[in-house]
Specification:
CATH superfamily of the largest domain: Aldolase class I
Helix content: 25-40%
Distance between the termini: 44 Å
Number of domains: 2
Shape: globular
CATH topology of the largest domain: TIM Barrel
Strand content: 25-35%
Length: about 300
């Protein structure tokens, strides 16, 4: 079975809309919409390819790019290794140079189009932030805990995992959820008594043990599902289950778990390269590690005290 190496680019206009293109009749999977791009040629780097393809397809000159995500997707007759680049700066006005249909769309509009399978993971990756805060797992109703939670709502944190090893009062969680909604922050529950039916959250985060006991996604697709993993096999299991993203840990050694053997950057990158859903790095992470994490194609970093 052949493997095709390809690249696509994420272009945004001043309205925040994304540019998508419709595959033509002579192409693989005709009629499906995708991000503009194409195949990597022999002796060509992926950044050279994205510049060439967008000039040929759209007539624009690419100036600066940054890696957004990598993924590999298995079709019945081929495997595609895909690199997704943010087109940070470019010159010119995108036009259809090869007769293909193009459209500027909002994220919500994307669901009205017949999209390539790889686009689902991409949508998750651009709607999720690059920092995922995990709350301390005890003393939830103490003044110190609540003050820290309130502080995070003002620190450009837009995704929070409410983690607890003890049962929490539903009214307490509802109050936290209302605070999150007022600050446009998504709240995921990682509680010992979660039912996946709670209306007062934006989704759930499951432990590795919970994930391994599941045979299907426990919640509807309009809710987020995150999963904790510690190696590639667990990451693949989470993806097959239908998780929207995973957390891989520990990437580096931590003071809280000094006996845990860290995966290291190379093993963490292998997870990123092998699965299609967004990956957060956890364990020994700090804001100083965020740029490196993003350069490796991960979604970002997660932690209790990382930021």
């Amino acid at each position: 079975m052949k493997t095709i190496k390809a690249v696509v680019g994420v272009l945004r206009n001043i309205k925040g809309q994304l540019l998508i293109a419709k595959r033509q009749d002579h192409q693989f999977m005709p009629g499906y919409w995708e991000l503009p791009g194409g195949k990597v040629e022999i002796n060509e780097t992926t950044t050279e390819t994205i510049s060439r393809e967008l000039f040929e397809e759209l007539g624009i000159q690419v100036n600066e790019v940054s890696l957004h995500q990598t993924m590999s997707y298995q079709y019945p007759d081929r495997q595609v290794s895909l690199s997704i680049y943010n087109i940070d700066t470019y010159q010119g006005i995108p036009n259809s140079m090869e007769g293909q249909q193009i459209a500027w769309v909002t994220l919500q509009d994307l669901y009205n189009y017949q999209l390539l399978p790889t686009m689902k993971a991409f949508i998750d990756s651009i709607t999720l932030p690059n920092k995922y805060w995990i709350t301390p797992s005890s003393n939830h109703q103490s003044d110190e805990w609540i003050a820290k939670f309130d502080q995070k709502l003002t620190q450009a944190i837009s995704l929070i995992q409410l983690r607890s090893k003890t049962q929490l009062d539903a009214d307490f969680i509802k109050d936290l959820y209302q605070k999150c909604q007022k600050n446009q922050v998504k709240l995921l529950l990682n509680t010992i008594d979660k039912t996946f039916d709670e209306a007062y959250c934006d989704g759930w985060h499951i432990t590795t043990g919970e994930m391994l006991d599941l045979n299907q996604k426990p919640c509807t697709d309009d809710k987020l599902l995150g999963a904790s993993t510690h190696d590639l096999d667990e990451a693949l299991k989470a993806q097959a289950l239908g998780a929207d993203f995973i957390v891989i840990s520990p990437v580096q050694s931590t003071q809280t778990h000094p006996d845990a053997m860290p995966l290291g950057w190379d093993a963490a990158k292998e997870v990123v390269d092998r699965i299609n859903i967004p990956v957060y790095f956890l364990g020994g992470m700090g804001l100083e590690d965020l740029e490196k994490t993003l350069d490796l194609g991960a979604q970002g970093i997660a932690g209790v005290s990382a930021f």
